[in-house]
Structure formats: structure tokens, C-alpha cells
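ok posting inputs for the adenosine-5'-triphosphate job
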Amino acid sequence: MPPAIRISQVTKRYGQLLALDQIDLEIRQGEFFGLLGPNGAGKTTLISSIAGLVKPDGGRIVVMGHDVQSDYRNSRRLLGVVPQEIVFDPFFTVRETLQFQSGYYGIRKNDVWIDEILANLDLDAKANANMRSLSGGMKRRVLVAQALVHRPPVIVLDEPTAGVDVELRQTLWKFIRRLNEDGHTIVLTTHYLEEAESQCGRIAMLKAGYLIALDSTSALLRRFSSHLLSLRLRPGDVLPER
Ligand code: ATP
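and the output
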């Protein structure tokens, strides 16, 4: 079974800024994986590289055996990407937004599946509402729904709970956990250690473009003392033993 995502020696520069420095990471199929790090660590750049939206300057990313650069169509079909930024056509209804997304993937719209996604995200009552009439939290639910219309086995979420109230946070986590239990690979970025701790089996920590730690959540928590968990590390710092 190939890994869900294999990242080999991936480097990305924006001008002088090194956003990712030779990142090596393998995420297994069925994992619930967390990418943790402070602002500017490189999390979104890495997620965008996996999604093929950012072209790395070096290295290679392979999604379930399909190279993101040379086999974009197939790799993209295997991924459901929930971006951080909320961008929609304000004149579409929720249902039309999801149907449009189906068309993007060249699949026939499947209203039964769309209804199921809407129900699971407590969006069914809003199916015919215009996107512009939705609250920010509702839009965020549509963002998740949209990533699932083509039934991708690997789901990548960039800070899905940023700026989200407690109720929606719980709805989202319940739904994402179920997707994982159903066999989907989940990769998410977060600033919140508590969230990563309660949801993820393994965690990679990024800081200033460097991968500073990669381990099971429990081992990482055992190994890191509280000041390290505040991520005040610098690249190359020696991790103290507990
Ligand atoms: P946050 O938690 O704030 O979302 P992040 O870990 O996702 O941060 P990135 O958004 O990947 O970090 O940014 C990594 C670095 O690359 C930052 O210093 C950022 O300013 C820079 N950067 C990101 N995108 C661009 C861009 N399009 N052009 C120039 N610099 C960029």
C-alpha cells in the first residue's frame, strides 16, 4: 500500500525567504495527522504544495502513488482540500456550490451524496440559501462540504477550526473523526496543541520552514517540556531529554 502522501526533500523559497527547507515526511493511509507550528512556520505552503497550488523549488510530493507535479489530475482527484480562506461565488446557493464543484472534477452531480454531506454538516436547512446570506461559520461548513463531493480518500484541512465557535468546532471534529474512522486519511494544520493532541495520532512540527519534530502524539508530548510546546524553538536547537 503506497503512503497517502510522500514528501521528499521539498524546498520552497519566496524571494529570499525560505518557507520550506528540505522537508521529508511520509503520511500513511488511514492516519489522522497533524501539522503544527506558529504563524509563518510553512504549514499553508506545505499544504498548498501537496494540493499542487504552490510549485516547490525542489523535491517531490506523491499522493497515493501519483506525483503532484507530473500527474496532477490524478493526484488532485485523490485529495479533498479545505483551504483556510473562504472564497465562494456569492450568488450560488449552497447546493449549487457543491454541484459546481462536482462539475469541476468532471463527475456527474450526485444529489444523494450531496444531501448526505449537507446533513452530516448540519447544512441541510441551508441547501437552497445563497452563499452571501450565510454566516462565517456556515461558510466554513460549506468549505468542508465542497472538499468532499468527489469522495477523496485523503482530506487535507488548513486550520479548519480557526475563528470558529465551540458548537461548530464540535460538529466539525465529529464529522472529521467519522471520515477518519471510515478509512479516510486526514491531514490538518492547527496552531492549537490541545486540538492536535485530542485528534491526531502523529504530529509533525514545523518552525520557520524546518521540520523540527515528527512523532506519535503521545511520544511527542512525553518528550517535549511545556516551554517547547509553546514552540519557541529555533531551527537546530537541541531537544532536551525529559
Ligand atoms: P499561519 O499559521 O500564519 O497560516 P503558516 O505556517 O501557514 O502560517 P505560511 O503561510 O506557509 O505559514 O508562510 C510561510 C512563510 O512564507 C511566511 O513567512 C509567509 O510570510 C511566507 N509566504 C507565504 N506565502 C507567500 C507568498 N505568496 N509570497 C511571499 N511570501 C509568502
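notes: Residues 34 and 195 are 9 Å apart (CA to CA). The longest strand covers residues 17-27.
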